[in-house]
Task: structure prediction
Amino acid sequence: MPGYLQLRVEGILIRGLTWSKLLDPDKKGQWWLSRDMAAQTENVVEVARNIDKEVLEAQNMLQLASAMGMNTENRKAIFCIIMTAEDYIDTIEKLLRLDLPAKQDREIIRVLMVCCLHEKHFNKYYTVLASKLCEHDKNHKFTLQYCIWDYFNELESIPLIKSMHLAKFVAEMIACFNLSLGVLKPIDFSNPIVLTNKRIVHFRMLFEYIFECPDNLLSKIFDRIAVSPDLEILRDGIMLFIKEHVVRTNKELASKFKIAKKALKYVQPVLM
Result:
């Protein structure tokens, strides 16, 4: 059985074509035409002259999927849905129709992140989509957290534009409370060996994006990690990082830093 039938995506439209039509192994003659156009003509020459623009876009979309590492039918289906849907509601409806095998729904968040980081300019569509997916199923939130940690481990090798998009994405997910600052727990902010120049730039951008939030929202963001004893090291590390690498380079953010410290009920450790 073809993979797309197992996924139950044969009826989902991609740029005017059904998935089954697009991936038909026996395609020939008029396979690339929309169903309406193919039904309206029997002349092969006329068919060839009226290639549907939307179908060409669909072909290009599949080529782009392959170029971006979508090397399974699951990932290609998810990619095409995310990239061609009318809006996030349309995307979610189509993604929920996919009959993905056990644990393969994790690919949805992974593909979403790849798409987000490959954009030339940051697109809020991805944070809205990720937020709605996390609200629908908490498993997406767990996948998102691990996916972000994977990208944190790759900060030394990814281009600046991707690092910027990742910082913005994480900041917005924290600001809408789908994630907390606890997602930064794997980062040792007090270790100068860990904090390479690229990591400093990345996390500086992340906190600068967070500091763009209104004061009341900013207070709630930091308040979420104020109580847990398990996050004491993280709290201290965040405060040290913001002081040394955010406020020191941008004095205008000092007022935001005060709000963060107040929310954490942070007291500067006394050196003995």
Summary: Residues 1-11, 25-35 have pLDDT under 50 and may be disordered.
